[in-house]
Known about the structure:
The complex is a heterotrimer. Chain A is of the alpha/beta class. Chain A has helices spanning 44-52, 86-96, 101-114, 130-142, 160-175, 221-233; strands at 2-11, 18-28, 33-37, 59-64, 71-74, 148-152, 184-189, 201-206, 209-215. Chain A is built from 6 helices and 9 strands. Chain C has one domain. The longest helix of chain C is centred in the last third of the chain and has 35 residues, at 184-218. Chain C is globular and about 55 Å long. Chain B binds chain C through residues 149, 152-153, 156-157, 159-162, 166, 169-174, 176-177, 180-181, 184, 200-201, 204, 207-208, 211-212, 215-216, 219, 222-223, 226, and chain C through 67, 119-120, 122-123, 125-127, 129-130, 133-134, 139, 142-143, 145-147, 149-151, 153-154, 157-158, 160-162, 164-165, 168.
Amino acid sequence: MLSAEGLRHAFGEGRGQVVALDGVSFDLTSGQTLAIFGPNGAGKTTLLKVLAGLIHPQVGSVHVTGGRRAIGWIGHQSHLYEHLTVRENLLFWAALYGVPAARRGPRAAEVLGRLGMARRADQPVWSLSRGLAQRAAIAKALIHDPSVLLLDEPFTGLDLAAAAELRALLGELRVGGAAGGGRVLVLATHNVDEGVELATDVAFQRRGRFVHFAPRGGRGPAEIAEAYRRAVVDG
Amino acid sequence: MGELLVQAWTVARKDLVLEFRTRTALISAVVFTALVLTVFNFGRDPTAVPTIDLAPTILWVTFTFAAMLALNRAFQLELENQALEGLLVSPLSRTSLYWGKLIANLVFVAVVEGVGLPLFVLFFDVPVGRVLVPLIGVIALATLGFVAVGTLFSALVIRTRFAELLLVVILLPFLVPPLIGAVQVTARLLGGRPLSEAVGYLKLLAAYDIVFVSLASFLFRFTVDE
Amino acid sequence: MSLAHKGRRITLVALVCVAAVYVRALAFTPVERLQGPAQKIFYLHVPAALWTEAAMILVGLAGTFYLFLKDPRLDRFAEASAEVGTVFATIVLTTGPIWGKPIWGTWWTWDARLTSTLFLFFLYVGYLLVRGAVRDPGLRARYAAVLGICGMCLVPFIHLSVFLFRTLHPQPIILKPSAPSLPSSMLATWLFSLTAFTLLYVGFVTQRYALSLARDAQRGGSPEAGPV
Ligand SMILES: Nc1ncnc2c1ncn2[C@@H]1O[C@H](COP(=O)(O)OP(=O)(O)OP(=O)(O)O)[C@@H](O)[C@H]1O
Ligand SMILES: [Mg+2]
């Protein structure tokens, strides 16, 4: 469903060259959630951008069942136009993702309802608080019912309650979409406490490499944090 | 092809709605046009140079500079919340994105020209009645060419510093052929001479449009990706 | 022999040739009947203007191939060619008025060749500015290629529009490159000059290419070896 094959990518050249991705491969099928932990500059964002097709890797390839249409992206930026209302934004992105015209309105209402944003639908984006804007961004990412969700530090800017809500939402999204069957989630963060419970698979990234990549098994946050310290911080 | 145009129109319509909501760029461009036309009126000696000799140049200098304002705006608005990134991860094809921007820019420039032309007629008292249709045709022909190139270049400079300034500098040489052609054809039209005198320039304008619209549609994909 | 060395040799030969063209044009080529001695600038001016156009076309061709092959050598060549093109344009734009003053009585005339070279000069300046404004080498090469290809396609349009303008508004004195009707001794001088300027272009580009290779090597890159 989502596979990466020998990805390698570097920025710059000469002595200033930074290898942001180095020999990363994996293969995820529906229902799997990969959590990638790594310090700042490890190459997590680069990896997600490569998976989303924003950056063409210098070496290696990515395969997504269903192509671009199947991908939902939640990054540092909301991709929302400040002077359009939340609904107008959703309708625009729905059109770009090829949602049939008749389905766009109901779909937008459905997603907004699910995120508790129904009352805010006709507010322009510039008038939303940061947390609400983040929710609107998530709504935008879900508008076309993607089967692969790429999340780059989705918890930043959310308060504890909102973060817990988002975790619950992601848990739901993971197991079933409208189309039935599970989704693939890839979640990148530098905070081991965030999102460990969601993961079926865990990877630690350091200087572009996966220094650890294994199923989570029954490990809880404390064990993962311990493993992370050994593999990344001390290693 | 149909799908491509539908997507392009989705993008263009969004741009136009946004522009209509904020109106800053459009109003600036219209005010700018009126201002330049006024300044030109005071910048000439009516007893020394007949209006009709200067009028075509004034018209086209005004139009091209007003268009620059539109071109700068096109991709600038995609930078807020990095919407451009969103467009690039979506299934929208690069060519659709280019055409969407081109359509929105053309509408924007057409509105400015639509306001500018009557002002021009009013201020300079040029007889356009008989030649209105061919005049609009020439305006459309010349505008299409340089807006097509300008749209491509505005995507090219968007990730650089001093994007606005750079756009003007790199676009300038590309304005030369459409500007010379448009001024010459306009001069003949306003002078009441037959269009057949300007066939060479009309061919030049048409060739420029064909070459640069296709070239820009093709090259655009190399400009927006990171 | 290193690339820089080769470049210097070729440039030296080219400069000797240009000097020879000068001598030949002044001393051994008949004075043109209508335009008098003023016409002699034509031997230097026309080849330089031609190479200003040709250099831009080569920049565009290198850009076209770069977009498909992603070979950094093509981008390096494009950069070198653009800088040399700028130098040639500068030569035309400065020698033009110097020769023009005594002949036309004015420093600047809107002579077709001078005018189109001026527009090309602006094109080169814009191209080099874009190169300077982008830091990432891959992005810079891609942007430069796009602009270079557009520039290449613009060359004939500038040429056409300027000459179309001139033919409809004849000037009292124009240096018309009426090559086919030239007497054979004039043609020979002109061809000799064209060869000299071609050599000069090759010499300059080779040196400039070697320079950018050396600069990158110094920065610790892994410069691709091999000539253009
Ligand atoms: N466009 C770029 N140009 C040059 N270098 C870049 C670019 N993007 C990323 N890098 C470099 O690549 C490396 C990986 O960056 P990336 O953003 O993928 O890290 P990250 O793991 O997401 O870090 P963070 O936790 O801070 O978000 C960094 O050293 C960064 O400086
Ligand atoms: Mg990051």
